[in-house]
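Teaching assistant here, posting this on the class forum so everyone can see the example we discussed in section. The complex has two components, and the goal was to see what a joint structure prediction looks like when all of them are supplied at once.
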Amino acid sequence: MSLLVVGSVALDSVETPFGKHERILGGSATHFSVAASYFTSVNLVAVVGNDFPDGHLELFKKRQIGLEGLEKQTGPTFHWKGKYEYDLNQAITLQTQLGVFESFDPKIPANLKQPEYLFLANIDPRLQYKVLQQMSTRPKLVALDTMNFWIQNSLEDLKQIMAKIDLLIINEGEARQITGESNLMKAWRKIATLGPKTLIVKRGEYGAIMFQDGHVFSAPALPLEEIKDPTGAGDSFAGGVMGYLARLQATDWNTLKQAIIFGSAMASFNVEDFSCQRIVNLSLEEINERAQSFYHLASFESDLL
Amino acid sequence: MSLLVVGSVALDSVETPFGKHERILGGSATHFSVAASYFTSVNLVAVVGNDFPDGHLELFKKRQIGLEGLEKQTGPTFHWKGKYEYDLNQAITLQTQLGVFESFDPKIPANLKQPEYLFLANIDPRLQYKVLQQMSTRPKLVALDTMNFWIQNSLEDLKQIMAKIDLLIINEGEARQITGESNLMKAWRKIATLGPKTLIVKRGEYGAIMFQDGHVFSAPALPLEEIKDPTGAGDSFAGGVMGYLARLQATDWNTLKQAIIFGSAMASFNVEDFSCQRIVNLSLEEINERAQSFYHLASFESDLL
């Protein structure tokens, strides 16, 4: 298999100006793997409780996502309850019940220990480290996401795993928090000293920006008129990025740029409906068309005076 | 002549983490006209007091900016005192002394009444209206900037002049404030009903986005490691945009896209030093090279799956 993701599978209760839904399918590994499944074969490693509805498993199966690494434990599934107000940029967490996720200790099944592409979604950096240690061969590319909680409380652990990865995919606030630099170019220079050769900064409605030694690429976000639920946008973005790289079997600069465009396309679909409702039923034509619309949005000639 | 700007010429006292400068040359018409002067011939209409240093006039003359419309009145020149803290995105106004600007009533000299391109920089919308009325022929393109103060206090006056213009160049907060829409696509649809056929939204470190019927273009900002003083970035952007349009004598979609790139290039130079120090001494080669760097930053192929 080519792409493995380790992260959370959750039940989300989400309220936005466009509706309110209880215990819908969520979690970083969920949005990631559904998005990535259009590009390559994906396996996920996560844990759910015995309250996890069978119907949700069907959704993963429909997208042919490998579930061998999905543990089922006695207890409640990780449950996040949150809402968004009119600007939709900031999630307001109302409640977090870790449930079985609290004691999550990912054990990678033997036949999943040789992924070519590995995504360590946002979990405790010590667990991210333990996952990487379980690989029987070093993947071609290891990417990692994290969040403010770990940066604030486990920075040394985070630095340990950051030293082992290739690609860091985080948001703007996290890049600033890790480095203490408000200027992104300076933040990137500091992050480069911590290990990652490539940094992708997610900027929500402003798109994404990628840094590598001597290169910078800025991708727009598609201006959407209806955003029903931003939950999972960053994970579906990462799923599109990693899925595209795995599909192309390449990690050069031009492939990384394309990966960001397809990641952005997946994120733009993700926010058009709650949970994974929109991204579970896409066609390759729709994805190509969406990627093309990014091209029309951002392309210009290099005319000179 | 081809391009006329009506706005402010000011003395700014500015403090940023990179230095502190007293009574340096500032004002919307200043940054605009210096930036535009690399593309076309520019005339400015503004007012200064009898404390305005002759040395500053030399700077305008060096850039061959027409000063026939620069009134000199008895009293102090408009003086803005402000500072920026580490994130540099938000100006903190410490003091505003309107001086002779308070009674500014722009009178356009007879031989400046037929510009092909007219920029109404941020002043009282009633004055913007009076300027347009003084034109002996309708310019090919009229563009306008404004600010939160007029949106809050003179919205009806602002709507009167907006109904007469072609291109609105404002920042994101202003677009939201005028329309009451946080979603930019929705904001654009409302603005389109008020008159402008084209909207350019300035997004600071996130670049700019342009809307026209059926078209959207998103341009990045260049990630800069040293931003010494953001004052005038928006005006030098507008100067580059309008100067480029006047130079090309065209306002089609592709020319507008290029204009945004050259406007962004001028803004990126502007912030590299205080006042107009950086943008007063550029070569065409430097400007072309900067525009090229935007191309490298944002270009990608339109590959399909």
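For the discussion questions: The domain at 3-298 of chain B is CATH 3.40.1190.20 (UDP-N-acetylmuramoyl-L-alanine:D-glutamate ligase). Residues 123 and 238 of chain B are 15 Å apart (CA to CA). Think about how each of these relates to the inputs above.
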